[in-house]
């Protein structure tokens, strides 16, 4: 369950697969534009560098990730929707995201949402926003 007050969210997970260890009670949800930027390697670069070749060669479908970013620029994977042909346990997403994805500092905690589509050896990465008016929608690049 979640509720919006403007673009501040008082809730927890947006997607069915939930992870623990994110200690953020209040955070801003990106809704109309990207408000926090990845500092170094992108999500898909981190996954490609850390997954076994057999995963890279065979994964198909869409992963949707909700990543909480604290003001210090650290990631905490909060929830995932897995519409791929791979079990989440095999993908090791929590460890890979939390330990490797760094962001520019931000004034407040932010929920960043990514949809990653795997087809063949191609990957399509989209940043999503969420608003009461539009629901989930693609954000324009910064």
Write up what this structure looks like.
The protein is built from four helices and nine strands, in the order E-E-E-E-H-H-E-E-H-H-E-E-E. With 142 residues, the chain is an alpha+beta fold. The chain has one domain. The protein starts with a strand and ends with a strand. The N terminus is likely disordered.
Keywords:
single chain, 142 residues, alpha+beta, 9-stranded mixed β-sheet, 4 helices, disordered N terminus
Query: Care to count the β-strands?
Result: 9
Fraction of residues in helices?
A: 10-25%
β-sheet strand percentage: 35-45%
The structural domain count equals 1
**First-to-last CA distance:** 30 Å
Give unreliable regions as ranges: 1-10
What is the radius of gyration? 14 Å
Global shape: globular
Biggest sheet architecture = 9 strands, mixed
Structural class: alpha+beta
Query: Kindly state the mean pLDDT as a whole number?
Result: 88
Order of helices and strands: EEEEHHEEHHEEE
Counting DSSP H or I runs of 4 or more residues, the number of helices is 4
């Amino acid at each position: 369950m979640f509720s919006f007050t403007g673009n501040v969210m008082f809730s927890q997970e947006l997607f069915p697969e939930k992870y623990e260890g994110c200690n953020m009670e209040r955070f801003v949800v990106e809704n109309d534009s990207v408000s926090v930027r990845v500092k170094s390697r992108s999500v898909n670069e981190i996954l490609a560098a850390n997954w076994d070749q057999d995963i890279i060669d065979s994964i198909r479908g869409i992963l949707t990730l909700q990543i909480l970013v604290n003001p210090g620029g650290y990631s905490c994977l909060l929830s995932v929707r897995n519409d791929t042909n791979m079990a989440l346990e095999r993908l090791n997403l929590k460890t890979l995201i939390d330990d490797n994805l760094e962001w520019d500092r931000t004034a407040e905690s932010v929920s960043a949402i990514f949809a990653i589509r795997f087809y063949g050896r191609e990957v399509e990465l989209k940043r999503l926003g969420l608003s009461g008016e539009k629901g989930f929608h693609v954000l324009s690049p910064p």
